[in-house]
Specification:
Layout (H helix, E strand, L loop, with lengths): L3 E9 L8 E2 L5 E2 L8 E9 L4 E8 L12 E7 L1 H14 L7 E6 L8 H7 L16 H19 L2 E11 L1 H12 L6 E5 L5 H4 L1 H13 L9 E7 L4 H14 L8 E7 L7 H4 L1 H9 L5
Length: 290
């Protein structure tokens, strides 16, 4: 189904410093904290009138000239939860000055919008198991390609050959779905604690078709990397599944695909993302090409 046009409202300076607010008891609350070097884009896109998204942008340093081919961009799924950690790590390390990080989130103050992410990151489910509603992964992938990436490219010079994605849990499952079904959209994938067990390992069929396309030359995976990560304190199933996924993809190195697995010591399912922020930035921003 074709996607309808969307409306974009751009707000520079995310969490702009204001005068605070007054509560029911008459006391004034302090103003919100600002994140210097950021911007916020409110975007409505998708089928049936679209759905609202909030893009949180960690901008390149003003004094840094863009690379000749444009800035490499990392898209971080569940941006409400993970953006601040990625922004701080990127801003503190000069080697990432000429890069962009985009948190792809939702218009909420909660770290995770359970219902929205459940829909956006998942395949269709039978009616008896469709609570919360699922099945939006194809539409969300189209939204990323046709609207979210262009919204960033309209504001910044972007290297379309160096777009990468970070996804955790359901987001990691979606990142692999993107690799298997739209392999030309991103060049680097960081897949943390992916929910590979979902719907009886439904990704296996997509994986088999992807592998066949690579081996027959229909998909070019040169300059493409996949890093699978799990925490040492996660369930044995999560660790085994992520390790096995990396092992199955490793033979595609003969066609140029770079695949690795990393077990992060001491981290559980929810503590893993902030623990691997710098590892993720190195993975997607330091690869040499050409």
């Amino acid at each position: 189904m074709p996607l309808r046009p969307f409306a974009v409202a751009l707000l520079t300076g995310i969490l702009a410093l204001g005068a605070g607010s007054t509560g029911a008891d008459g006391r004034s609350s302090p103003p919100p904290v600002t994140l210097p070097g950021t911007a916020q884009i409110e975007l409505t896109a998708g089928p049936d009138g679209g759905r609202p998204y909030r893009l949180l942008v960690s901008e390149p340093r003003e004094e840094v000239e863009p690379p000749d081919d444009g800035y490499p961009v990392l898209f971080v799924l569940d941006g409400n939860a993970h953006f601040a950690a990625f922004h701080a790590a990127r801003r503190l390390q000069k080697r990432f000055a000429a890069t962009i990080v985009v948190g792809v989130g939702y218009p909420t103050d909660k770290p995770l919008d359970f219902e929205r992410r459940s829909y956006d990151f998942s395949p269709p489910a039978p009616p008896s198991r469709n609570d919360p509603p699922q099945g939006g992964d194809a539409a969300f992938l189209e939204t990323l390609s046709r609207h979210i990436v262009p919204a960033i490219a309209e504001r910044y010079p972007v290297d379309r050959n160096r777009l990468s994605v970070f996804g955790h849990s359901f987001g990691g499952m979606f990142a692999l779905h993107a690799l298997f079904t739209r392999p030309g959209l991103f060049s680097d994938y960081v897949v943390a604690s992916p929910s590979l067990w979902w719907q009886h390992d439904y990704l296996l069929d997509e994986e088999r078709r992807f592998v066949a396309r690579v081996k027959t030359g229909r998909v070019d995976v040169r300059d493409v990397s996949v890093l699978l990560v799990a925490g040492s304190r996660e369930t044995p199933q999560t660790i085994q599944d992520a390790r096995a996924q990396a092992k199955r993809l490793r033979p595609l190195s003969a066609h140029g695909l770079r695949t690795a697995f990393h077990l992060q010591p001491g981290e559980g399912h929810m503590s893993l993302p902030p623990a691997i922020v710098t590892r993720t930035l190195r993975q997607v921003f330091t690869a040499r090409r050409y």
